[in-house]
């Protein structure tokens, strides 16, 4: 069973929708019952084409989370800040503003836009540059400066070279568990990705 927690949020272009959820129920895997009771998220693109073609671009992340037992939620669409010396700094000429594609933060009954953000990541060169740690410094529309830091704890690879992993994060000092999904698009046309988990504390995923 899925329950909505907060009002739906849409992009400025009204072509993508996100909503914080709570999931409660049971799965049976290999004869073993797995009980679910924790934060979740749903999103949907609408009105624009999504060919999912490979592009010449460094990794981009779709990051979302549910916090405070469902009282707060957030979303980022962001790649690593190339000005801070990433693995792709010498390959692409993109500013921090070009690597940040928007985001939002819901708290105390209001939705704030994330107006500025910079992401840095530590990656595993032995495992297709899978993210091992990330940090996002950002400012919301209320002028508050905040920080998100996270580390995956477990992950698995799935279609198109993507990974899904469970990780823990701190949000300006608050412990959280996060799902994190990341798509890695290279100039060679290969697509890779990474994602992260859930909990009854703050919950975050990343897409690319």
Number of spatially distinct domains: 1
Structural class by secondary-structure content? mainly beta
Number of strands: 13
Question: Could you name the ranges where pLDDT drops below 50 across 5 or more consecutive residues?
Answer: 181-208
Question: Gap between N and C termini, in Å?
Answer: 28 Å
Quaternary arrangement of the chains shown?
Answer: single chain
- With helices defined by DSSP (H or I, 4 residues minimum), what is the helix count? 1
From the alpha carbons, calculate the radius of gyration and give it in angstroms.
17 Å
Write a concise keyword list for the protein shown above.
208 residues, mainly beta, globular, disordered C terminus
Topology:
Layout: E1 2-4, E2 9-10, E3 16-29, E4 32-45, E5 60-67, E6 72-79, H1 96-99, E7 100-107, E8 110-124, E9 130-140, E10 145-158, E11 162-171, E12 174-185, E13 191-196
Parallel strand pairs: 11-13
Antiparallel strand pairs: 1-3, 2-3, 3-4, 5-6, 5-12, 6-7, 7-8, 8-9, 9-10, 10-11, 11-12, 12-13
Provide a concise account of the structure shown.
By secondary structure, this protein is mainly β. It is 2% helix and 60% strand. It has one domain.
Structure notes:
The protein is mostly beta strands and 208 residues long. It has one domain (51-196). 2% of the residues lie in helices and 60% in strands. It has 1 helix and 13 strands, in the order E-E-E-E-E-E-H-E-E-E-E-E-E-E. Strands 5, 6, 7, 8, 9, 10, 11, 12 and 13 form a 9-stranded mixed β-sheet that branches. Strands 1, 2, 3 and 4 form a 4-stranded antiparallel β-sheet that branches. The longest helix is centred in the middle third of the chain and has 4 residues, at 96-99. Residues 181-208 have low confidence and may be disordered.
């Amino acid at each position: 069973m899925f329950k909505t927690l907060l009002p739906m949020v849409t992009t400025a272009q009204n072509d993508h929708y996100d909503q914080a959820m709570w999931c409660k129920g049971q799965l049976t895997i290999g004869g073993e019952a797995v009980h679910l009771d924790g934060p979740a998220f749903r999103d949907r693109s609408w009105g624009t084409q999504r060919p999912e073609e490979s592009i010449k671009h460094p990794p981009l992340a779709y990051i979302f989370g549910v916090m405070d037992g469902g009282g707060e939620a957030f979303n980022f669409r962001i790649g690593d800040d190339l000005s801070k010396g990433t693995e792709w700094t010498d390959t692409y000429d993109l500013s921090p503003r070009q690597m940040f594609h928007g985001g939002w933060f819901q708290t105390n009954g209001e939705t704030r836009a994330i107006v500025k953000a910079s992401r840095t990541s530590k990656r595993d060169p032995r495992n297709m540059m899978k993210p091992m740690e990330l940090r996002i410094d950002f400012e919301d529309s209320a002028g508050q400066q905040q920080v998100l830091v996270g580390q995956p704890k477990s992950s698995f690879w799935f279609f198109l070279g993507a990974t899904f992993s469970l990780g823990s994060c701190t949000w300006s000092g608050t412990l959280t568990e996060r799902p994190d999904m990341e798509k890695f698009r290279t100039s060679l046309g290969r697509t890779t990705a990474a994602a992260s988990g859930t909990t009854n504390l703050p919950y975050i995923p990343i897409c690319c």
